[in-house]
């Protein structure tokens, strides 16, 4: 068969493998145009002579029993250029002798295929559900945002794959101009600049979570020590056990007294004891006698608490009365004697309180980490220096709540792992989220660096090799050397002149083809030999993105949360949670000094009760005016925190597909 002969066979949908039986002519093809562009299925427009029956009558093309699938093949000499598609366009010029049919190599199950393929691509760091809204997570198109890939539709099998937009996966075809098949037609060569390269991408993202933690902390020792006591004992001249905090009392934002108790060490309630006696004095006979009766009532403290300060004492009341009688001889004698007095001893009691306080916390602290970096592309200039040219900002990137279960396509996880964490970005999962940002920026710059499109007209014999998953190397004196990914092709026949026209377009990146080298950096804790690289943080380290990818690297951020320092992952102490240290107003020592200065000392003689009352009121009023107060503040368990990280990223090295600077 001569090269350039087209075959056309109507088929059943199940006939998905081309065989010798399909090398037939079910329709008389007058002309055709078969083409495919990157990201789209191949399409065929074919002009056929209107079919007729044996009697020469026209046969309809829209009948219910007509087949709509067809194999099309073009004999290119060494091989066939094949296409399988289904009729999608209503035949035009239906009343004319020539009828136009439109076919597309688009599978019926395109949605199912994309979803199945997308499932395999939903992997970190290229796809990160933490920054994708739930409504978009099942959209296959969203998956490709982190890849420099595009959908590829096979024109024969209709299997959908993805193909890199910079470097094709299925090898490189050479058009070097030396061999017969390696030549391209002189008039078919073209070079255009599709757009300007992007010089820089600025990325800003926010990762949020709620720091969650519950627990309790014994503050007894800290408070007792700061309050001037020893152990769990608090000493004061004004503070008693009744003044201690009660269980259930709020202690601050997110804090409550989980367990609180206070008991006096010494019983300071007054005790009373009484005694009485009787003495009969005889004065020379039974008639001369005197009866002396004595009774005493005492109010006292026992024991007297250490530190109690004597203020003074004395007789506050004294009365006596002697009654005389006459005996038979006319003599006078004291028949009775009555005396009463009151003594008052004042003291300032030192109250010793044995107290305990266990504070419970329920932390719900909104945390945000803002990550920013700029990625520069090492691209050639077109009209201006790319560094001064266009830049793109990716700023509308915000995560879901990282401490809540993330139910998405990749399963259920809590991104931050442990909601007690102070930082996310420095964790293993956080670094994957950061690398997702790198993937977004890298994809944007890579795609925009493919600005040169070269169109060549190859020999017909090379067309069976052409797919959108391959690269083409063109060597031609007018353009020099160009290497690019095939972004489109077409093959057509004009029935009016019988000429077959072939065209292949390639997209070339205008990078400089460099690479990035990883750097170990300096450990911040100790030698790597001692702790191992997995338990270290490094300064000046450069990690290659995606491990073996040498186009870009970054310095992993070191956790530096801008918070109050509480680490819920470790055992907390009072020092960890005290926001404002305990301050003592009028400590017991100051009270004792004041009381000692006011003390009168030993007895103050016989005074009236009014003086005692005034003295007591004076001391009490003085103590009320300078009560001992202990104030401190616990760190808030509901406070918001935000931390900013600016990450160092290397210049993105872009492949050299075409050297504009050498033209």
Give a structural overview:
With 663 residues, the protein is mostly beta strands. The chain has a domain at 6-104. The strands form nine sheets. Strands 1, 2, 3, 4, 5, 6, 9, 10, 23, 24, 25 and 26 form a twelve-stranded mixed sheet that branches. Strands 11, 12, 13, 14, 19, 20, 34 and 35 form an eight-stranded mixed sheet that branches. β7 (149-153) and β8 form a beta hairpin. It is rod-shaped and about 185 Å long.
Short key terms for the protein model shown above:
12-stranded mixed beta sheet, about 675 residues
Number of helical stretches of at least 4 residues: 8
Tell me roughly what share of residues is in helical segments. Answer: 10-25%
Shape: rod-shaped
Write down how many β-strands occur, each being a DSSP E stretch of 2 or more residues.
35
**Compute the gyration radius: what is it?**
49 Å
Estimated structural class = mainly beta
Pick out the low-confidence regions. 528-535
Mean pLDDT: 85
Tell me the strand percentage band: 35-45%
Largest sheet: 12 strands, mixed
Distance between the termini: 44 Å
